[in-house]
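Fig. S4 source data, part A: sequence.
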Amino acid sequence: MTITIRSVFIATIAAVILSVSLGQSARADQHEIKFRQSVMKAVGGTMGGLAAVLKGEAPSSHADPLAHTMYELSKVVPHLFPKGSDFGETAALLTIWEKPADFTMAVAAYQAAALNLSKVVHDFDMGTFGPAFAALGKSCKGCHENFRKKKEN
C-alpha cells in the first residue's frame, strides 16, 4: 500500500475539519448549558422577588410584573433541556433525559402554577396570592427534588 502526498493531505484536511466542527459543537453545547443556567437563575431570582413581596419586604405593586415574568420564563423552560444536552458542568440530573415524560409533567405543573399566579396577582389579594405562590414553590420543589443535583452546603 502506497501512501501518497495527496492521501496524507486529504486525511490531514479531513482531521482538521472534524476537529474544528467537534470543537464548535462542544462550544455551542456549552453555550446551551450556560443559557439554561442563566434562565434558571432568572427563575430563582424572580421567585426571590415574589417571596419578598409576600413577606412585605417589597411593594405589592411589584407582584404583577414579577408574576408575569415567572409565567413568561415558564414558557422557555421546556426548551432548555433538549436531547443531547445531558453533559458538562450542570446540576441537571440524567433523569431528565431518562424519564422525559416525568420531566414534562413536572414542567407542566410549574407552568400551570406560574400561569395561576399571574392570573391571581392582578387583584393582589393576600388570601389568593399566598396559596398561589405556595403552589408555585411546590412545583419548583418537585423539579429540584427529582431532576436536579442536591446543592452542597
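Fig. S4 source data, part B ends here. The radius of gyration is 22 Å.
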